[in-house]
Specification:
alpha/beta; Rossmann fold; 7-stranded mixed sheet; 10 helices; 7 strands
Length: 240
């Protein structure tokens, strides 16, 4: 694991408390693109973190197993999801039997893998006709205040473009976008940002300074203290 990937372990409780979940429409789209139901399917949720997606997959009726490399994230997962089995490992070296799963899911985790290893591992672990489903929850920059905040973040961290996070060379991939939103306290919105790896590596003082400035900018926009975060979930599904 890289230092950036390991950074989540120290902030696992913050991650579980502030990160967004996923809308039912996302799982509808997974089923549609995969051509089969999650109900009764055997699913491995890889890079499961604290289990935000894993728990929702189980609610859909899946027989789900979590795979998570991080100590802190796995500990938080067990607290939040005592009834869901979890094994330690990552997508480049899946600790799973060959041909044993109907779905492999990666909720905001595929970019931590090396596709040269994780794609062959997906092929190995999935049954014939099984589906690899990857998705990312991104703030919707068509919303003006989100676009302005995104520009401040990019300037602050010196980011000029998006990394290639969807490496699926050699696979027949179907795509879908799902828009949704959630209403949360401003403090939770700021904590959500603080739970991202860029801030976790930045350090407490610089993170606090940036988020305090964001609080001052956003408070007049949301006088009741409730922020509507708008998201676009980018979904990619490959059937093996």
């Amino acid at each position: 694991m890289t230092k950036r990937a390991r950074s989540f372990d120290a902030a696992a409780a913050l991650y579980r408390a502030s990160r967004p979940a996923y809308p039912p429409a996302l799982f509808d789209a997974v089923e549609e693109l995969a051509g089969r139901s999650l109900t009764g399917a055997r699913v491995a949720d890889v890079g499961a973190g604290t289990g935000i997606a894993t728990a929702l997959l189980r609610e859909r009726g899946a027989e789900v197993l979590a795979v998570e490399p991080g100590d802190g994230m796995a500990a938080e997962f067990r607290l939040a999801n005592p009834g869901i089995p979890i094994v330690r490992g990552d997508g480049d070296r899946l600790p799973l039997a060959s041909g044993a799963f109907d779905f492999l899911t990666y909720a905001q985790a595929w970019h931590w893998t090396d596709a040269a290893h994780s794609v062959p591992e997906a092929r190995r672990v999935l049954r014939p006709g099984g589906a690899l489903a990857l998705w990312w929850n991104d703030m919707d920059t068509t919303v003006p205040w989100i676009a302005e905040q995104d520009e401040r973040l990019r300037t602050f961290f010196g980011v000029t473009g998006l990394p290639d996070r969807e490496s699926l060379e050699g696979l027949d991939v179907s795509a879908r976008e799902v828009r949704w939103s959630r209403r949360i306290p401003l403090a939770t919105h700021l904590a959500n940002h603080a739970s991202h790896s860029a801030f976790l590596l930045l350090g407490e003082d610089d993170t606090r300074a940036f988020l305090d400035a964001e609080r001052a900018r956003l408070a007049p926009l949301f006088p009741d203290g409730i922020v509507e975060e708008c998201y676009v979930v980018t979904l990619r599904v490959a059937v093996m």
